[in-house]
Amino acid sequence: MVESVLAKIQLIAISKISVINPRIRNKKSFRELVENIAALGLKKPITVTRREEREGKIYDLVCGQGRLEAFIELGEAEIPALVIEASVEDCMIKSLVENCARRHHQAIDLLHDIGGMRTRGYSDSEIAKKTGLSFEYVRGVGRLLAQGEQRLLRAVESGHIPVSVAVEIAEADDVGVQEALQQAYEKNLLRGRKLMIVKRLVENRRRRGRRFDAEPKKGGQKLSTRSLVRVYREDTDRKRLLIRKADATRNRLIFIAHAMRELFGDEKFISLLKAEKLDSMPKKLMSRMERGDVA
Asked: Which end of the chain, N or C, is less surrounded by CB atoms within 10 Å?
């Protein structure tokens, strides 16, 4: 068995290998991979499948994009590869399964592969069955991809927000978004720093859109009349909301001050407070009670 596997490992020209499902790599991790291969060599060959073209044999990469790119970075012309028989669809499935099997798999790889398989006609249930991912996860990612939720997808990729919460936010209005955040907090899905990050994300998504390409470019680009009006209206809405909150708070304070003044005019109530040792009061509130200043 070992001999048959070794017999399939070949030195293949890197120029003849095509990456049918490319991914974006973390620069730091990639640099560490390059240094590791430079120092210790390639521990595991890449996996490819062969197909015949007019110009000769061409190889499609099944898994090992990082190792392949590391060899290119090191200036190598050939790389050890395990050649298998597989269709393009099988290559994508094997690639996705490899990502799922990683101890710390990159979410962006999973998102990219799920999107690619859906484009090729696989249903969510088929993708879930072939990859071992939950149907809910696959369906959630599919919804985010279909709606162009780039900001939420990046948050899912970074591990800042569960995909289930991201889907709830994507399909909710402003009130529903706040309810989704509250429920996530109560369920201990978003706490502390993650909650603050997601709140900023939600605000940016509301102001600038779901996609990153909707953001105005840097470099002093002039705003259109429509953009200026939108910004003005958004700023006006925020200030109106602050005013409503301030008025509501003021009315509550007036009610409390008036109620306290009425209660402190009741001797029985005062006696009860003294008996329970609850008769102390902040000096500012007491002075307002004495002045009769409840407004």
From this structure: N
Give per-residue pLDDT as tens, 71-122: 999 999 999 998 887 766 666 666 655 555 554 444 455 566 677 777 777 7
Bridge-partner residues for 56, per DSSP? 53
Kindly state whether residue 188 falls inside one of the protein's structural domains. no
Whether 62 maps to a domain, the answer reads yes
- Report the distance separating Cα 198 and Cα 196, nearest Å: 5
As beta bridge partners, residue 84 has 49
Domain enclosing residue 260, as ranges? 225-291
Q: What's the one-letter identity of residue 28?
A: K
pLDDT digits (tens, 9 = 90+) for 122-159: 788 887 777 667 787 778 878 888 788 888 888 887 77
How many domains does the chain contain in total? Answer: 2
**Dihedrals phi, psi of 216, to nearest 5 degrees:** -65, 140
Q: Mean pLDDT over residues 3-17, rounded?
A: 72
For 236, what's the count of Cα atoms within 13 Å in the CB-facing half-sphere?
6
The CATH number of the domain holding residue 60 is: 3.90.1530.10
pTM: 0.39
